[in-house]
């Protein structure tokens, strides 16, 4: 198993939990963190026993308070582009991970932290969650996907307001605008996130993976191309044992036992 300096990766009962672990810096994303997240994602992708990935930050104060400003401060234009491209590549890998992903947002999710949550499939927030894209206050723009994923999730007008003002959004408002799927008590965050993961795990892995692929790829296409993709993924599942088992179990009035094949 790989050793990590800046994160932990725990695996139990089909769920992997990736925790960014730099609590003294509010889990700020340095280049090393991004590189280790990339390696951890490869490890999760290849692990057939893992059905859901949870992404969170250590401690209760911050999920991730952004890219590491102290490390970024001295960069020149070329280095800035390289750093943004690295983050975009890693977060795209997260977005396209075979397994579904849930961000468990504990406290501040600012800048790159908000962008990390945006690259996950689902976001559950503790009552102390705070989202924001404060980059314009630092003389930069969001550089790990915020200008692209935030408007796609909450709409262009709201995204522009959040990015131009740099204002923080508390959990209840984040829920109202669709940035959070659910808000829970601080002490229940991981338990509630795992409960959602367990609901997903009860379903056919191939069905869940196929749904993710169809949604993600379809969002990049015209609706007609997306519908054609949906029919293709739908049809391919009829060649699987899981489809036979799922429908036979329904007819026989019992729970399905999916085998991921
Ligand atoms: C480096 C950070 C940091 C960050 C916090 N720290 N955020 N270090 N990069 N993004 C460090 C602080 O310097 C401090 O360490 C320690 O963490 C605790 O933070 P405090 O500021 O003392 O805590 P508090 O007063 O409670 O304020 C919490 C906070 C604030 C509101 C979250 O830390 C804050 O505004 N952080 C920066 C948020 C931000 O601007 N994020 C966007 C970054 S740009 P020391 O040792 O100094 O006491 C970005 C771009 C992404 O993400 C794209 C790049 C291509």
Report on this structure.
- This protein has 261 residues and is an alpha/beta fold.
- The chain has 2 domains: 7-201, 2-enoyl-CoA Hydratase, Chain A, domain 1, CATH 3.90.226; 205-251, Orthogonal Bundle (Lyase 2-enoyl-coa Hydratase, Chain  A, domain 2).
- It is built from 11 helices and 10 strands.
- It has helices at 31-46, 69-72, 77-95, 112-118, 146-154, 156-165, 171-176, 189-201, 205-218, 223-236, 241-251; strands at 7-12, 15-20, 52-57, 62-64, 101-105, 108-110, 122-126, 130-132, 169-170, 182-184.
- Strands 1-2-3-5-7-10 form a 6-stranded mixed β-sheet, with helices on both faces. A 4-stranded mixed β-sheet has the order 4-6-8-9.
- Helix 1 runs parallel beside helix 3, helix 4 crosses helix 5 (146-154) and helix 9 (205-218) runs antiparallel to helix 10 (223-236).
- The two termini are 26 Å apart.
- The structure holds hexanoyl-coenzyme A (HXC).
- The site of hexanoyl-coenzyme A has 22 residues, from helix 2, helix 3 and strand 6.
Computed over alpha carbons, the radius of gyration is 19 Å
Identify the overall geometry: globular
Low-confidence stretches: none
Number of helices: 11
SSE sequence, one letter per element: EEHEEHHEEHEEHHEHEHHHH
Summed over residues and divided by their number, the pLDDT gives a mean of 97
Number of strands: 10
Largest sheet: 6 strands, mixed
Q: Tell me the name of the CATH homologous superfamily of the largest domain.
A: 2-enoyl-CoA Hydratase, Chain A, domain 1
Beta strand %: 15-25%
Instruction: State the CATH class of the largest domain.
Output: Alpha Beta
CATH topology of the largest domain: 2-enoyl-CoA Hydratase, Chain A, domain 1
Count of all domains = 2
User: What distance lies between the first and last C-alpha atoms, to the nearest angstrom?
Assistant: 26 Å
